[in-house]
Amino acid sequence: PTVDISDDRVTATLPTGESVSILLYGATVISWKTASGAENLWVSEKAALDGSKPVRGGIPIVFPVFGPPPKEGPTSKLPQHGFARSTRWEFLGKSSSEGEAQGQGSGDESVKLDFGLYGAGLDESVKSKWPYEFGLVYSVTLGREGLMTVLNVRNEGDEGWEFQMLLHTYLRIDDISKTTISGLGSATYIDKVLDATTHTQSTPTLSITSEVDRVYTGLKQDTTSVLADGKPRLDVVRDNLEDTVVWNPWREKANAMGDFAPKDGYKQMVCVEVGSVAGWQRLEPGETFEGGMMMRSYV
Ligand code: TA6
Description:
This is Glucose-6-phosphate 1-epimerase. Its EC number is 5.1.3.15. Keywords: Isomerase. With about 300 residues, this protein is mostly beta strands. It has one domain (about 1-295): Beta-galactosidase, Chain A, domain 5 (Distorted Sandwich). It contains two helices and 21 strands. The chain has helices at about 125, 250-255, and strands at about 1-5, 10-15, 20-25, 30-35, 60, 90-95, 110-120, 135-145, 145-155, 160-165, 170, 180, 190, 195-200, 205, 210-215, 225-230, 230-240, 245-250, 270-285, 290-295. Strand 2 (about 10-15) and strand 3 (about 20-25) form a beta hairpin. The protein is globular. The relative contact order is 0.17. The structure holds 6-O-phosphono-beta-D-tagatofuranose.
């Protein structure tokens, strides 16, 4: 594998052509290509990549709160989706596993890139909004079988605190009208388009023909699949995370987002976001939590 480190991003490439690129800002994965050269993530043409605001696309990291901050409580002063996606992380290093001794790379070649964000390193303006000592290590592993992203959360302080986390993944698809999502069957979901009322997914697959903003909980299986014309395109497998959010802004909300371009781009993307967002995880001093996902692409 080759790893290129520049001042704002880290890019890794496997000899077989797979690649991943991560902005240090927010440790936001902004590109993941499979050996065919296909880009699997959607990034808005007007996404800010200069750190001026969270990236509209790729895989923003949501921590320590999902959605608008609660009216009161420890996360009430934070911006929507918390501060992890809008803070500069540090690159901690890389490790790669070469192919077996056979030399020609027996297919299990991979490279792991680690990024860190620590409470101690935050500037006062952020620390004052969530005054807890924490450590985040985000590992991005590019392999031939897919992309794995895992967030390790550690309580470095002397008091317990609670958090939510989510990987806000913008998946690229060819045509939303030919796309269905499976793996959500019979799960309960909170419908944020319908005033956060609770529903049950009755059909085995979900088609998207208007704005969708659903938090699925109580999922029966770990894999949520995106299908194109009924054929698998992308699998998102949850790792120690219970919830999956499905979001498509559709036309009106896409028009309302200044950094969403092209305006009909909602036809080429769907967010499948794995996380722990329906409730709160609690960490006592010294405790850690680890959760993430494995994504597989079929193109
Ligand atoms: O994950 C879905 C969601 O919570 C939507 O409600 C919408 O707000 C989206 O996130 C984007 O949020 P952002 O703060 O990135 O504009």
